[in-house]
Amino acid sequence: MEKNKNNLSVLLGAAFLMATSAIGPGFMTQTATFTTKIGADFAAVILISIIFSYIAQLNVWRVIAVSKMRGQDIANNVLPGLGYVIAFLVAIGGLAFNIGNVGGAGLGLNVIFGIDVKIGAAIGGVIGIILFSSKSASSLMDKVTQILGALMIILIAYVAIKTQPPVGEALKSAVEPAGGFNSILQPTLTLIGGTVGGYIIFSGGHRLIDAGITGEENLSQVTKSASLGIGVAFIVRVLLFLAILGVTKMQGAEIDPDNIAASSFLAASGVVGYKIFGFVFAAAAFTSVVGAAYTSVSFLKTLFKFVADHENMVTIAFIVLSTIMFIFIGQPQTLLVLVGTLNGFILPITLAVILFASKNKKIVGDYIHSNILFILGWIVVAVTAFMGIQTVIANVGKLLG
Fold first, then answer.
1. Please, are residues 314 and 322 in contact by the beta-carbon 8 Å criterion?
2. List of residues 6+ apart from 245 with CB closer than 8 A
3. Is residue 6 a contact partner of residue 138, using CB atoms and an 8 Å limit?
4. Is the pLDDT of residue 67 over 90?
5. CB-CB contact of 170 with 40 (8 Å)
6. Number of H helices, E strands in the chain
7. Can you tell me the mean pLDDT for 152-159?
């Protein structure tokens, strides 16, 4: 009974670690920005991105579980040396995003308490350090992500109800966007990258390996955990989208283009809404700091003995470096945009590696991977690679134009 209870806690923790890793300051800013830009058509972006994310997530988590290997070790078995390349890309991307996450914690605390953003960022870094300094860091991480994830859903749902969004219009636009599907290519790639790009798709899978919940006998539990993680991210995205869509339809609502999410919450519920935004933004940042640090380090620990022997210390150093870079350099917007685009490219590469691995008996043994998941996985690889190339061509065209 005790083992089942512990397993349930870990499975929930893995799901919320993945979901809250995705629900960071960038997630909230992207949702707010795209909703005000393309309105109800953003519903189609959410629908497509969540379907693609779910397919990618199931493929990755199932292969990690049956192989009992982390992403970088699977990659090295597919092609020697590839794991080091992927680990480097994921770790660098995780560090860059963590600078933004620490900054998000500072912004959230600034809204709640009025303290300086850099002091708030330092507090956010200290909280992350305290979490990983604990002897029971893994179980504590599970509990923190579950509690903050649940609170975020409740608070965003409250604001969404207050704004009375046009749900019917959103449902129609989900399958028939008014601007056509070409107009949602870039937002869709950005959302997929933000939901399962880079380190995020591996966060929960690596947590399950650390807890020993692997093997074919645990596949049904792994699938449920992956489904819950994507489900939580989907619910938060939809609620946040509806809340901001409702504000855009409100008479006399003033939205600050430099801080769309915060001003939307303020317009929806006054000072209370603004404080709710601060808490949600800070909670999203705290959980993303934890997820980015934990998963980035987990990509290095099987490749470098020093990291494996001092995992918590290296994770703390990762958070300290992110915090110092934010405090002394400020939020590197250009770097975050660059890494955001990179995440869109990392996904088709890492997913392709996992799909090759799923049919390699040296990696998965006698396990027979679902042909449906395999085919759908390659469709996701092809489409995200195409969208990534189209986005780069469009951005280069703007620069040259």
1. no
2. 35, 39, 40, 42, 163, 165, 166, 170
3. no
4. yes
5. yes
6. 17, 0
7. 85
3 state SS of 81: coil
The DSSP 8-state label assigned to residue 136 in this structure reads T
| 252 φ/ψ sector (left φ>0, alpha ψ -120 to 50, else beta) | left
Q: What angle do CA 41, 265, 13 make, to 5 degrees?
A: 80
**Residue whose C-alpha is closest to residue 123's, from 145, 106, 98:** 106
41 phi, psi to nearest 5 deg: -60, -20
| Whole-Å CA distances, 142 to 3, 12, 28, 222, 242 | 16, 7, 22, 16, 28
Q: What does the pLDDT look like over 78-105, one tens digit per residue? A: 999 999 988 988 888 788 778 888 888 8
Q: Which residue has the tokens 């749900």?
A: 167
Handedness of CA 102, 248, 112, 204 (dihedral sign): negative
pLDDT tens readout for residues 251-275: 667 777 767 778 888 888 888 888 9
| Chain Cα centroid distance, residue 167 | 25
Burial class (CB in 10 A: 0-12, 13-18, 19+), 361: exposed
pTM for the structure as a whole? 0.85
Note the helical H segments in 249-310.
260-298, 305-309
What three-state secondary structure class fits 37?
Answer: helix
Q: Distance between the two ends of the chain, CA-based, in angstroms?
A: 65
Q: For residue 187, is pLDDT > 80?
A: yes
Structural contact between residues 334 and 184, judged by C-beta atoms closer than 8 angstroms? no
Q: Domain tally for the chain?
A: 1
Helix-strand-coil split of the chain, %, nearest 5: 85, 0, 15
* CATH number of the domain enclosing 94: 1.20.1740.10
The domain of 307 spans: 2-400
Cα–Cα dist 129/177, whole Å: 44
CA dihedral angle for residue 234, residue 197, residue 277, residue 259, rounded to 10 degrees:
-120
